[in-house]
Design goal:
Number of helices: 3
Strand content: 35-45%
CATH superfamily: Quinoprotein alcohol dehydrogenase-like superfamily
Number of strands: 44
Distance between the termini: 17 Å
Structural class: mainly beta
Largest sheet: 6 strands, antiparallel
CATH topology: Methanol Dehydrogenase, Chain A
Length: 555
């Protein structure tokens, strides 16, 4: 493993050089293997693994492909499992290299399993003496306990062996609640950099839970739902409320990767209320320049604008935001009816953002876009260099809105997740809707899908993932949230072609109850799917001809 710390990289005064060097270092470490180190595979949140050479539309069929085993853990798995290849771990047999899948639970545990055999390599609890995971805070959103909800993030070049960053919630016997950021060595689970650190914050404002001119972060009032994000030297967390129970506001908080010192704080509704950041578990997205994008939930928005066209009191509820790495809002978009949408809880905040790869428009101009959708069923495409801001009298102040989906008015019952991107196609799985594939043409999204699945996905819909070998052999994977859960695989070129589902072989491939906001992880010829009690691991069945073609399991 590489032992280069991000702190060892020279820092540029504006941070851009550092961010570029950081990306190059991570690319050098991960180029040898197909790793899934962050929510939905990359900071753009495309959901695609383009190095999957084993799984193909021709061989993912129920006679040859199915459930291999279930990773048993001590609680619900709401975070996406992460995968890292070729990790050297010291055990009774000395130093052994493993492909590792990392699983975090709502019981405040993190596990490392051998990704090929299911053997447990290590397990750690992040509870301090006398503590337990948090209760559900009187809300059924995460129940019966709250521990680790957000997908962690792995930085292979942090610490001596690589580090996994995790946020865990807990409570003590006196009823005090805690949110802590942990930095764990990926080879042992040991705490690094003097961690964990308590998550505390304040920000200038007079909104909910303010005192002496500052809004205060109350750890009992918040959950860390969106996946963690690493940009440059910082790991960013974003915060949502428990079932919209005030008082709360919208927080983004950054920490230094190598010291765990708090580096940056933003509150997006500091002089108002609400404005949670939850995105159905989707991590905030980032582009190659380090700018951060996310969809904010219902909350205060100041319709009176300043000279720059920004909300006069700094309240960005129900907005599509762009931040710089120092967590300053540098641009945004709010729809003309944003206040009404917030009032009826029809907000953007249920959806996640995706940074679209650069593409040329009909005039040959390169466009840099970001896409998102929420409860109002509209797909919003913003120009990352001019997102549109707010105009109460103009519905056209954004790059593109897709309101008619074929012959359907919008996306199902709204989006409670995020899309995937592959080969110039955007895949959306809205609530109570089929998964729809929309093609880009000349940097515009065509409103008529090129294909759809044959079945709808009930609440919360689906956040799909893509496996492919470059631009070939694309497979779309999605979880159906029913009991038992159903894993589906479709040909990414034509979603009407279902390759496999985990009900086709009767009960053989049943892997546990479905869970909301789950996106499959695909790596190394296997698919990892979180449930309310563990992680189902799918791959080529051991006696199949496809299994015989696989490389030997690492020992």
């Amino acid at each position: 493993m590489c032992g280069i710390l991000p702190a060892d990289v020279p820092k540029a005064s504006d941070g851009k050089l550092f961010w570029l060097l950081f990306l190059l270092l991570v690319a050098a470490v991960t180029a040898r293997a197909q790793n899934v180190l962050t929510w939905h595979n990359d900071n753009a949140r495309t959901g695609q693994n383009l190095k999957e050479t084993q799984l193909k539309p021709s061989n993912v069929t129920y006679p040859t492909f199915g459930l291999l085993f279930v990773l048993a853990v001590d609680g619900t798995v709401d975070a996406q499992p992460l995968y890292m290849a070729d990790v050297t771990i010291t055990g009774l047999g000395g130093q052994v290299r493993h492909n590792v899948v990392f699983v975090a639970t709502e019981h405040d545990s993190v596990y490392a399993f051998d990704a090929d055999t299911g053997a447990r390599l290590w397990q750690v609890s992040m509870l301090k003496p006398g503590e337990s995971p948090s209760d559900d805070r009187g809300c059924n959103s995460i129940s019966p306990e709250i521990g680790v909800t957000a997908t962690p993030v792995i930085v292979p070049i942090s610490g001596p062996h690589g580090t996994i960053y995790v946020v865990a919630m807990s409570k003590d016997g006196s009823g005090n609640y805690y949110q802590r950021l942990h930095a764990l060595d990926i080879t042992s689970g040991k705490e690094e950099f003097g961690g964990p650190v308590e998550i505390q914050a304040k920000f200038p404002g007079t909104g909910d839970n303010s005192l002496n001119g500052y809004v205060l972060f109350d750890p009992g009032q918040y959950m860390d739902r969106p996946g963690l994000l690493v940009v440059g030297q910082n790991v960013y967390t974003a915060w949502s409320s428990h079932c919209d129970e005030r008082p709360y506001t919208g927080w983004v908080i950054g920490y230094d990767l190598s010291t765990l010192a708090q580096s940056h704080v933003l509150n997006v509704t500091p002089n108002g209320n609400q404005g949670a950041i939850w995105s159905s578990g989707a991590g905030m997205a980032a582009d190659d320049s380090g700018y951060i994008y996310f969809l904010d939930a219902n909350g205060t928005f100041d319709t009176q604008l300043d000279a720059r066209g920004f909300p006069s009191e700094g309240d960005f509820g129900n907005g599509f935001l762009k931040l710089n790495p120092e967590l300053k809002v540098v641009d945004y978009f709010n729809m003309y009816n944003t206040v009404r949408e917030s009032d009826i809880d029809d907000d953007l905040g249920s959806g996640g953002a995706l940074v679209v790869p650069p593409m040329k428009d009909a005039d040959g101009k390169t466009r840099y876009l970001v896409v998102g959708a929420g409860k109002d069923t509209i797909i919003y495409l913003a120009d990352r260099n001019n997102m549109g801001k707010f105009n109460p009298n103009n519905k056209g102040n954004i790059y593109q809105e897709v309101t008619q989906v074929g012959s359907v008015e919008g996306l199902g019952d709204g989006v409670w997740g995020a899309p995937a991107f592959f080969n110039n196609v955007l895949y959306y799985g809205a609530q109570s809707d089929v998964i729809r594939a929309f093609r880009f043409s000349n940097a515009m999204l065509l409103s008529t899908p090129i294909s759809t699945t044959s079945i709808p996905f009930e609440y919360p819909g689906a956040t799909p993932s893509i496996s492919a070998a470059g631009d070939s052999d694309g497979i779309l994977w999605a979880l159906e949230n029913i009991n038992p859960g159903v894993l589906h695989a479709y040909d990414a070129r034509d979603l009407s072609v279902e390759l496999y589902n985990s009900n086709q072989a009767g009960s053989r491939d049943h892997f546990g109850n479905g869970n909301k906001f789950i996106t499959p992880t695909i790596a190394g010829g296997k698919v990892y799917v979180a449930t309310t009690s563990g992680v189902g691991v799918f791959g080529f069945l051991r006696n199949s001809t496809e299994s015989e073609k696989l490389p030997p399991t690492r020992k």
